[in-house]
Structure prediction request, 564 residues.
Amino acid sequence: MKYPGLLNHDIARVGIEESRKLNLIVGGMVTDAIKTSFGPRGMEKVFIDILGEDTITKHGGAFLRKIDVNHPVAKAIIEGVNTVDTHVGDGTISAAILIGMLLKKSQELLKMGISPTTIIKGYEKSLEFALDILDEIKKEERFTDKKIMHSLATSCLAGKAVTSLVSDDISITNLIVDAVCSVTNFQKKEIDIDDIKIEEKAGNANSIQLVWGAIIDKTIDNSDMPRSIENAKILLLNEPLEIMRTKTDDQIEINSPEQMTLFLNQETIDIHAKIKKIINSGANVVISRKGINSIAQEYLAKAGIISMRRVKMNDLFWLEKSTGAKICKNLEDIFKGELGFAKKVYEKNVGGDKMVFIEGCRNPKSVTILLRCNSKRYLDEFHRDALNVIYVLRNFIENSFIVRGGGSTEAIIANKIRDQSTTVVGREQIVIEKFADAIEEIPITLARNVGMDPIDTLTQLRSKYANCPKGILKWYGVDSEKRKVSEIFSNEVIETLVVKQQIIKTGIEVTNMILKVDDIFMKDEIDNTHCHIDGVVHAHHDGGKAHDHFEQEGLEQRQMHHYY
Prediction:
């Protein structure tokens, strides 16, 4: 719709009713694209980028980050899902499903004549009710209990690629739980996710392992150096063992062959002096962020010392935490406190490439998980799965409250909110009931993806909760293995409380933000922007047809366009 005289000719207004209708439709389209990946029987998505590289994933946040969208509502939903992924590391698809259903229910409410302001207030009241219900049904566990951690990890990995491709002999959940426990400060209930390094290499998925130390994706510098050292004393360097070029244009005048020989000998003497300092310190493994030339390598090899050059700075930080070493500040004065320790440092062929393993560190504050898989596509998915579990375990350690999964938590919230909605006077009561219907979509989607009838599932869930004795809490949800509605027990499927809280908070906030938008004004996109030789920059709506910027020079002398 154009408004001559009010708006510029290149600005269009969609209109209040059409804008809100379009926003709600777009929101549903985004969530419909990802909801089939929900649950242990969910399907995977494939995204092919502009270069033809494909990504295979059932991780909601990863997939939505890949796709390009233009509509601001779609961008808002993706940002909301990313917020859930960033803060709690799990529940991305649940958040997308909840947002989509809240928008769909908002359409129904608008058709009933309920104003957007009332809908927003009703959703905010629903959020308060839902959080109170979660506080009522949550259960606190010991944050040091490895059995609970194992159950949380198992529930998080259910149906993921890493569990379907790895044999039962390799317990990936135990491996990740051990990694998390080793880097956690249980006294302060603190854990830094970055203390767990994740390395990826092509190979057999059953070769996934946990290294109590670090893995460096480098080779030992010189073939004359030993391939393995036990009881290693590790020196970390941030300065070169080679002659560096100056940053200024300096010149050295050499007038005779003898002077050239003296100059080269002095380089060798300087390098040898540095190597002697390293040997005297007792270090037998040298890892440098900068270069180590062939002369230094030769001296180190003669002394039986392993060296690795041009190692990433992040790897040095991981080595500091795992080995107890400190990056050497002054090579002229190395003290013993700067040396780290590892029981064994050795080079190993992994997936066709050589890597250096630094194992057996004393009380390592950083460990490494080595992921293996035959396909690079699934290695990336393994990495995402491992990070999901690490985030979930971090949530539990920092806030050791849990609830049960299988859609049972959402079903309880829906049942209790319907009872509480009768205490609210006015049209907000209808909005709160619609919120209960929306949050029920999570167990319904789970049932649909495992092959159950969604209508039968919904009626069974409501019937079971309606027949529960008052004062007794029952956790009825969807059993994905047996494909039926049954009680979810505490040792089966559990989830952290903070994930559920974040899902509901994000769902309400994103929905209300979209509902507050009542009109859209768009400026026409112009692709024909160009400039003339005199510096005039402008654009044409007609594809750049002739015009009179240079008519005073005559048609023959008029300058051509320069498009960019």
In short: The longest strand covers residues 340-350. DSSP finds 17 helices and 22 strands in the chain.
